[in-house]
Each structure stands twice: as C-alpha cells, then as structure tokens.
Amino acid sequence: MPPQSHDLVRRSMSKIMLSDDLRNYLNRLPDVELDLLLEAYERPLPEAFRVNTLKASEEKILERLKSRGYSIEPIPWARHGYVVSGGGDLGKSLEHMLGLVYIQGPVSMAPVEALDPRPGEVILDLCAAPGSKSTQIAQLLRGEGVLVANDISFDRVKALSSNLQRFGVLNCVITLVDGRKYPRFAKGFFDKVLVDAPCSSLGIISKNWGIARAWSIGIVERLSELQRRLILAAFDCLKPGGILVYSTCTLTVEENELVVNWLLENREGARVSEIRLKGLRHRPGITEYNGVRLRDEISKTMRIMPYDNWAEGFYIAKIVKEGG
Amino acid sequence: MRLLTSAERRYLIKRLEDQHGVEDAFDDLVLIRTGQGRIRATTKETYEAACRLRRVQQVGLYVAKMVKGDVILSIEGSQLLGAAITKNIIELSEEEAEEWMKAAPIERSEKIESRYVIARCGDFYLGSGRVSRDGKIYPQVAKWRRIPEE
C-alpha cells in the first residue's frame, strides 16, 4: 500500500480520522467490528446523569426535572442513573449547581455498580479525579462508612474537591498521593478499592476525536506499565475478603486483560469474580492475544464496545482478595 | 487543618442559634477548622481514617465560614441544618433561586435586621446572603458554583 499523506487515512464514508497504526491495531483485535466502531465514534454520547439521593428524594428531583421539560429514561444497570433528552443544558441548570444531579456517562456508572458499595464500608477510589465515580460511591454508602478519594494531580484534586462538595459528601477524605505508593501506609486498610485507571481512552473518542490522532502503541505500553503498578498497589490496600474493581475507558488488551492477568500472576490470593449488571450489553474478556494464552478466568471480565450500547466503551474487572 | 477547640465550637453553636435559631448545630459531627475561618464537618469515623492516611488535602464538607463574628453558611451547610433554621430565612421563587445562583442581588420589600440571611426555595437551601444597607441581599455563592450568565 502506498504511504498516505501525513500517515493518516480518511475513510470515504467517515468523518473521523484514524492513524494507520490505530486502524491496524483495531483490525488485529479479536471481536471488533471496525465499521460499527467508527459509526459509534461519530455519534454523540447519550446525555446521562445520576440523581443525588444524598440531598433529596429521587422522586422529588425527577419531578422537578420533568416539570422543566426534561425527558428521562432510567438506565437499567445503574441505580439512580437516567438518560436525559429535551429541556435546557443540564450542566447549567439550577439542579446541577445545587448538586441535585451529577452528569455522568451511562456506561461510566457501571464500574461502581460492579463494586457495589454498601453502607459502613471503607472504600478507596485510587484515581478519583474529577470525582464522578467517587460521588457515586458516596451516594451508595449513604453517609455510613468512609470514602477515600485519591489522585496524583493537584489541579485535578481541586475539581474532585468541588464535585464532592457540590454533591454534599460528609464522609470523605481527599488525598494527593501517587497511587502506586498507597500500600506504604494503607496496606490491608480498605474493604473495597476502585481503580479507574488512566488510559488511552479509545472508548470515548466520540467525546474528543483528538484521542484518535494522538494514539500510539508507545503510549499504550507506558500506560500499561503504570496500570500494572496501580492494580498491584490497589490489591495490596485491600483487607482479606475485599473487592477490587479495575476499569478503563479503552479497548486495548495491553491496558485491560493483560493488566488483570499480571495481577493474577503476581498475587496468589487474587480471583476474578463474575459481574452481573442488568441490561448492559458486553462481551467476555479476551483470553488469547498475540499467541499468548491468558488465565481462563479473564473471560469473567467485561469488555464493552462503544457500539454495544451506543455509549462509551469500557473494560471492567472485579477481583476478590481471598482469605476473608 | 485542626479540630475546633471546645471554646470555638461553643461560639459557633451560639452564633448559629443567635443568627438563625439553630439549636445544637452539627452536634453529631466532628468540626474541623481550615484556612480563612472556614469550617468543615465530617463523621468521627471519617476523621479517624484521615488521621491514618498521608497527604490529606481535605476532610468532609465545607459547611460554614466565620467572618467578624458572623457565621456564613455554605449551600451544603444550610442544607444540612435544613428545618432547624428558623430565624433570618427568606423564601425564594424558582426564578429568584436561579438569580441567587448567578450571585445576582435579590430585593426584599420587608426590612431585615440581621447582617446575613439564609435563602430557601421549597425544600432546598441555598446558603447565606449578606444584607446590604441598601436593603438588597447579596448571595454568598462561590464563583465556581454560579450558574453562568447567558
């Protein structure tokens, strides 16, 4: 094939531009329908939000929104989650500013549902900023127990702090720590840990097409190394019997299944657990990649393509620490 | 960041009673003093967890600020106290609540003696507003929290 100008390929029917590297990578992935993926990338993501039951009853808030002209449909897999259409810009509404609603993508609500926070638990959100999943954890804790929301970036912690304030979370601690170092002082401290890891974001290209242009396998390999260290740290912070959820909004095997496989090979007590989320279309985790066979239990993890639900693409793994 | 001393706590509670008729405010919560007279509230369990952790940036919820002996309640602080607020409270219409969240001054025909009032719109509390000599009420809404002007 002759070289393309600026190493980019423009699809005849598609507005989105993928680099050759990315196109080749996606073509090599098992179980990916590239045409559907490109179609999903071109569609806007559905607008969705959670009702903040820490501030008022669900019925009262929904009634307010409906009276202001919003049409609302529940998201089957997320408690308090709704897809919204009509009405004005929810992000500039009184309800948003008062913290009665939190705007969040529908599939982005799935990792915390997989974690299933229960009142009274002590939970760490290791890569928490800007705080969507932290506020969701806080909501499900219902004011009982403790949420520790951590991030490595001071600027991002400011956004995290604002969102936890707006959401009205009393039982939270914000820390500014490199997640890889967390076990140095909090080994075995938490009932549950969420690692929503920094990633190459191939599941949310429709939000920002620049992601597709900036993508490279080098970035993926660097992120994969970081993710491996984060997942080990998170696991070490769990009490015996504790639960870890690892998630990304990307599609690469290096950042998903290979990271979980790395944990299973490096921590004896780690076991992958089934995730059940009502109505969320997904496919099993990949267990064979580039001629390498991964642990069978990786098939219990969840790979969600953007065209599965015409929303964000995600990967979610739930891991139990044996011995509780 | 440090715990409020007993004297500081008693003073805050007294001022909240005088200003807004709240009795035994935040009595089941730990109160923490941070910079610029700000007060945060949290649970005992959360505070104990924070003591075990490192590089703690914040604990709990910002509820109030002490300014020259007056208590300014945040939106969340006023929501937390809710129905316990019985004095110096004004009721806003939906339209006025929108204006309040843009930090636009609100006019009231009745004379207000206090320097600060709490605004409410139905079941929702919107924090403190400063009563000016010209009779207007200036909402104390943080910039990041305001509804942007069109």
Structural summary, described in words:
Chain A has helices at 20-28, 34-42, 58-67, 94-97, 110-115, 132-141, 154-167, 183-186, 210-214, 217-236, 257-266, 306-309, and strands at residues 8-10, 17-19, 48-51, 70-74, 81-86, 101-103, 122-125, 146-151, 172-176, 190-196, 238-248, 270-273, 283-284, 288-289, 292-293, 302-304, 314-321. By secondary structure, chain A is an alpha+beta fold. In chain A, the strands form 4 sheets. In chain A, strands 7, 8, 9, 10, 11, 12, 13, 16 and 17 form a 9-stranded mixed β-sheet that branches. In chain A, strands 4-5-3-6 form a 4-stranded antiparallel β-sheet, sandwiched between helices. In chain A, strands 1-2 form a two-stranded antiparallel ribbon. Chain B is of the alpha+beta class. Chain B has helices at 6-20, 44-52, 75-81, 94-100, and strands at 2-3, 30-33, 38-42, 56-59, 61-67, 70-73, 89-91, 106-107, 116-121, 124-131, 136-139. Chain B has a 5-stranded antiparallel β-sheet with strand order 1-2-3-5-6. In chain B, strand 5 and strand 6 form a beta hairpin. The model of chain B has no long low-confidence stretch (mean pLDDT 95). Classes of the chains: A alpha+beta (324), B alpha+beta (150). The interface between A and B is medium-sized, with 34 and 36 residues.
